[in-house]
Design a protein that fits this description.
Layout (H helix, E strand, L loop, with lengths): L2 H6 L1 H20 L10 H23 L4 H14 L3 H33 L5 E6 L2 E6 L8 E4 L8 E6 L2 E4 L1 H4 L5 E3 L4 E2 L4 E2 L4 E7 L5 H10 L7 H28 L2 H10 L3 H20 L7 H7 L29 H15 L4 H11 L7 H12 L5 H13 L18
Antiparallel strand pairs: 1-2, 1-3, 3-9, 4-7, 4-9, 5-6, 5-8
Amino acid sequence: MNFKELLSNEEKRTSIFLGISLIGLLMSFFNIKVGQFDSAWIAIILCGLPIIKDAVVALVTNFDIKADVLVAMALISSVIIGQIFAAGEIAFIMTIGALLEEHTVTKTRAGVERLINLTPRTARVISNGETKVIDAKDVKISNLIQVLPGETIPVDGEIYNGETSVDQSVMTGEPIPVDKTVGDDVFSGTVNQFGSIIMKATKLGKDSSLQRMVALVESADAGKAKIVRLTDKWATWIVIIALTSAIITYFVTGEIIRSVTILVVFCPCALVLATPTAIMAATGNLTKYGILIKEGYALERLSGINKIIFDKTGTLTHGRPELTDIIPYNNLNNIINERIEINESNNTGDVTRITNSIKIMELNTDYSKENLIQIVASLESKSEHPLGKAIVKHFKDNENREFIEVENFEMIIGRG
């Protein structure tokens, strides 16, 4: 990164200015001067002037009275009365707060960008029997799109041909892939796991599920928090009260320093800097862990919550299924005979089907746990399904045996 690019990066530029200003303030504090020049002016110029400029622009263009106006007044007043170090210190501290806020916003944007990057930039569109790779932005409604195993689905749509399992954890948080067949909906940003499918595009751009989720995160503006709105609402009155108090203090005491001190103390830094920073930091960190917050006010309300009810099981997991128990059913004949008696009493017509099942199962009803896990793990060793991987991991970790050789393996999607 060259010097020009470095200065164009606001966060890096501010960090450099803060470093130089800190050196200037330390030299001023220990009364180290270059001629008659007070090095605290460095902090005033590098950190204070941008604050004053932003306050003046906001006040003149939009009559927007916020904390920057108070800070600007305190800076200018300190310089007028000759308190150069105090002015530099004010500028330095406020710039640190602004840098922290900018850094937090950058982290939040990075979380949003990670969501955006989940969408592929290209799509494999089928037209007139030919497959052509085009920009994902050029996909039209009803276009037929081929998605190969391991690829990310580019747009929302429904399966036109084929069967597969789709990892929808980015949308639902559930780690187990969902089986999909013709007519089922699929969503942009989710990952096709096993089968090659052809899908028909149904939603594009901002209407797609992933883009709506991105918009949801971006809408979590810290400025929407109740405490921040309250500060903005009363900012004008705070300025008026601060000015009035400073003027009265000067007339009563005759000391301009006391008046300037009041202007500095009245600045609501904790509300306008700390609150947005905390909210944006929380939003960014939650996004990193897949938790989306619609608005800052929702985070404020969390402080009063002591119970949470989740609407379904299987969502709050480590994302890695584990095999916990092995139960071989060696008494299948008895179980099926019981079902026959029930079906005969209900006249369901399933007696013949279940009796045929008995003849098949009679050959395979005496497996020990050790035999069963070896057979099942050997079969699942050929599969990529998360449940199959859990079985294989359990076998490798707990059994000091080799897999049985499996021939003619075939994985049929969506059949369990």
